[in-house]
């Protein structure tokens, strides 16, 4: 390949290689030092979702300072699901009965949330069907508790016109029940809630069983049969007095499937491997399902979370994509440098061969001007000296085989010119004029 083509090809490759090295270096450095802020939508600031979110944020920050979980309040599961779809948030806490769009994936099942139907003792409500004609405090529309109440009431044959539904905040509902402004309150909440504990220690307030959990599962598969254990809300005078049948639904941590898998993997890892620390911050974390039991109800799990559950480490290429890119760029740069070096060496080899060729041309000129055999012998000696040098340079790669081939032609011409000049001198002809007899003698000698 001609030297000019090598140079034209090498320069763009070197420039591109340098740019790739710079870009890869900047991206790798940025990735290693970047703090990822993730927004987590929960529920009311006074609710358990918000409290759990703050606990998770604190523990994740402790174990990985490059992940900052920003916890924000919301109206509940319905709003959280919408925010996730709109990518206004990256994580959200939902109830597992919440329909998820195809763009959302589960990160983990968390703690169970239990149906609490709490009534005033004087309201004569012993079962769900007794809510007919009563005033019922519900959580605000958009919350999981609100939507699940209608599932429950329809199952027991109640219509919206059969009772008075009064949506309000959790705090307002507790106060309304205590003061007699409502006859009952329904909330889906984790066991051990401090507000619920305080409320149930009022002798005028009691829990009503919900004992058709298996039947409710036919319409909402996410529901689970469960019990509120005897003494869960008071041990001295047991509240409830016996294990109370009810229904529960799991809180789940959900993410948009476009969120980086490595980021979700790390949050999932900390969630499970640092659960003891999480329990200290929020007792509900003690009821988080084991990692190997998360494959349930046909939910699609985020690839990052699934990788952790399967105990799969990220592939070598995925984990070291940026260093590999940097390495390849460096290799490409080195190859480009070697290519340029080769062009330079070939140019140098050609220049050295050109020097020898010029010397041969000068010797040929001297041969034509030689006056006697002695001068020819001296020129012939110089010719063989040049040949020796060329052979040594060829052996040491100071000239290329191609340059050697180009050298042999003028060298052979020079050698033949010496022989021809020697013939002319030996016959005494040097002026270029030949008689017929002299030409005949020259021809005989050359032959």
From TrEMBL:
Keyword presence, Transmembrane helix: yes
One protein family per Pfam: NMT1_3
Keywords associated with the record: Membrane, Receptor, Transmembrane, Transmembrane helix
UniProt-listed SUPFAM superfamilies: Periplasmic binding protein-like II
The keyword Cell wall biogenesis/degradation is assigned to this record: no
Transmembrane regions: 9-29
PANTHER family attached to this UniProt entry: SLL1037 PROTEIN
Official protein name in the record: TRAP transporter solute receptor, TAXI family
Source taxonomy: Bacteria, Bacillati, Cyanobacteriota, Cyanophyceae, Oscillatoriophycideae
